[in-house]
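Lab notebook, bench 4. Continuing the backlog of folding jobs that were queued last week. Each job is logged with the same field layout so the records can be merged later without manual cleanup. Today's entry covers Tol-Pal system protein TolQ, a 240-residue chain. Filled in by technician R.K.

JOB TYPE: sequence-to-structure
TARGET: Tol-Pal system protein TolQ
LENGTH: 240
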Amino acid sequence: MPPADIAQTATQAVHDITLWGLFWSAHFVVKLVMMGLLGASIWCWAIIIDKTLLFRRTKTAMDRFEEIFWSGQSLEDLYRNLQGRPTTGLASLFVAAMNEWKRSFEGSGRSVQSLGQRIDKVLDVTIQREVERLEGRLLFLASIGSAGPYIGLFGTVWGIMTAFTSIAASKNSSLAVVAPGIAEALFATAIGLFAAIPAVLAYNKLQAEVSKLQSRLEAFADEFSAILSRQIDERIALAA
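JOB STATUS: finished
OUTPUT FIELD FOLLOWS
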């Protein structure tokens, strides 16, 4: 190739080595990989923001409920205020346990001997539902965090194969010809890391928050179960 043509090719390559240029000149398969990873990254950030706001609202609701619960207000009054309303967090545990309590004492033919065990089971099921609600869509973050680099690497391998095929067809191995194709291929790996790194960090952070909230739910369930157990023993003693 004449030196003038080589210089022109190099100039064009330099002109195209931008983020948009690397994407636009990439192979069709590599473009699909890049677009998929970018879409996954956007969805990951949407999950991160949504979960951060959800955990903040949940913590605030828990603090507010605990303040009311331990203020000395009657359990019956608190139950009437919450009954029929959508509840989350500690309020859900309280309403579920009180529902079982009401059905046992107000229903006919119901034994209170095993009421404590039934309340514990209701609390365990409610805790599991709350944890599932908090953990919803976190698995997607873990999946992108683990699979994102490999998906980007697939695009890189495909792009390098295409680049070397083009080099062989053009019979020109100058840096001006080789560099753009390699840069396009490596761009896919960069996007994979761009999607995976925030997903991994956010997953670890959010999962730790879920564990803290779950511990708080379990602690309240134990305390409330103990309160109801004492009242059950008192009623059994009075009935005897």
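OBSERVATION: Residues 100 and 118 are 8 Å apart (CA to CA).
SIGNED: R.K.
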